[in-house]
Amino acid sequence: MTTNPALARWIEEVAALTKPDQIHWCDGSEEENERLTDAMLADGTLLRLNEDTHPNCYLHRSNPNDVARVEHVTMVCTQNQDDAGTNNHWMAPADAHRKMDALYDGCMRGRTMYVIPYLMGPYESPYSRAGVEVTDSPYVVANMRVMARTGTRALAHIEAGNSFIKGLHSIGELDPERRFIMHFPEELLIKSYGSGYGGNALLGKKCHALRIASWQARSEGWLAEHMLILGIENPAGEVTYVAAAFPSACGKTNLAMLVPPQAYAGWKVWTVGDDIAWLHPGEDGRLWAINPEAGFFGVAPGTSMKTNPNCMQTLGRNTIYTNVGLTADGQPWWEGIDGDKPANLLDWQGRPHTAETGPVAHPNARFTVAAAQCPSYSAKANDPRGVPISAIIFGGRRSSVAPLVLESLDWAHGVFTGAAVASETTAAAVGQVGQVRRDPMAMKPFCGYNFADYWAHWLSFEERCANLPKVFHVNWFRKDADGRFMWPGYGDNMRVLKWITERCAGAAKAVSTPVGMMPSPADLDLTGLTLSSQSLDALLAIDPAVWAREMDDIEGFFADFGPRLPPALRQQVERIREQIGPQQAA
Ligand code: SAT
Ligand code: MN
Q1: Residue 199 Cβ contacting ligand 1 at under 6 Å
Q2: Is there a catalytic annotation at residue 311?
Q3: 198 lines ligand 1 (CB under 6 A)
Q4: Cα separation of 322 and 300, whole Å?
Q5: How far apart (Å, rounded) are the C-alpha atoms in residues 500 and 242?
Q6: Integer Cα distance of 20 and 211 in angstroms
Q7: Residues 388-425: pLDDT tens digits?
Q8: Which CATH number fits domain 224-294+378-563: 3.30.465.10, 3.10.580.10, 3.90.228.20, 2.40.440.10?
């Protein structure tokens, strides 16, 4: 129940349409969570994991047809199709409402409708935003409670007169033919039907904190980005904050929790966020970032004491696992976890695992865990002001073309660098894995409006902030001729972060190339790392012929955006082409 008339009216309307047996307003309390968990254990939605090794941990197995985001049925429904842009699937709002409301009609009969008030961002922050998700999935309630600040305090924030985003969600029948994720940015409304999975169902995350928030950010003069936020502390105790954008399943969680290599005594990385950043111009001319989330919804496969020790210490208690495998003694298991592969595993579908049954964990298997459990979690993550950002880092998964690290020449070049991000696709979304696609600012699936307008908005920060961050591009995924990764990655990415912080402080050296500033091999601190000089040269190589082709490809991609494309981006293509010089067609 609520004293907010707009919220009360909307809940009444939704209940009249979906016809639930009961309505439950979530208070976010421990008791409520226990009651829901017991009910989910009783009906098989959750399985309890080994209480001795994994206290208060649960396994959820999705319907096998419902294990990732579904971009082809995720739509931005604006009055004017051009406002959504060619980067989004679009449907006219009236048609989308008709379609969704037909699906919702009576869909909660026999079910409980949960009302989840939530806050994205720290309490008392002027940058935090509220939402209310209505759902018929207790699994969504349990996950939202970890990922956002839900319940009584969030409701009080709304009842104090703050605006809120409405999100209506039903798992429906989990029928892929009846599955849609619709966004109505002009109505601050989300309608999701037919999926119980992650970004399709936890509406505070990608739907609100990125798609709707990016739309709001544009009109209000800030940025909602698919970025981790971390603090890099040097041996003198100075902390430099950076925000970094990578496509889903490219190691954002690992980078956010990085443990520096042994040779880097006195260096430490603090985790502020692992997926989303809201960036606001501060009075000091810098960009300040908050993490709107309160938990991590990370990819389990590949996570181990070697790749992410902080994450392994975060997991293992009070964690919801989704689509991981199960050992005979009730522990979660996934490909890449520490230790030998045990016998008698059940796979993510609960079937006995054999050589023929495929992977044990689904490649997009996830964990949901409170950020506060992370040993490297920064106290600043709850600071209402956020943290000041000195560098923005873009990256993609590219086996060729992009070198280990590049620094943009100025803001406009930085925006171009972000707009030109390309990456090989991963299991985080349904579709073919390993295809190179343009993923500007890692926002291809998440920008709630026309990319051309989005880039213009990014460019406008030149006028909004006197002290903008430096912009970098990194690539941890470059491969040699035999298809092997050349850079060790993980903790050793610290070596690149160190150069970046030193560039921000005006200390480190760099050489100039048409596509940006780069360290020479001697400028990187590689103490304690065995890497052949051949590999290092290859990691830092810029091949003019390859980059000339890359410019053709970027130009072709930009052409999709027609006259809305900011001229400053086309000028970057022209400048780089001119500086590379004429190239033989390869
Ligand atoms: O979209 S999810 O929240 O399921 C995870 C991701 O793709 O980053
Ligand atoms: Mn993400």
Answers
A1: yes
A2: no
A3: yes
A4: 9
A5: 9
A6: 28
A7: 999 999 999 999 999 999 999 999 999 999 999 999 98
A8: 3.90.228.20
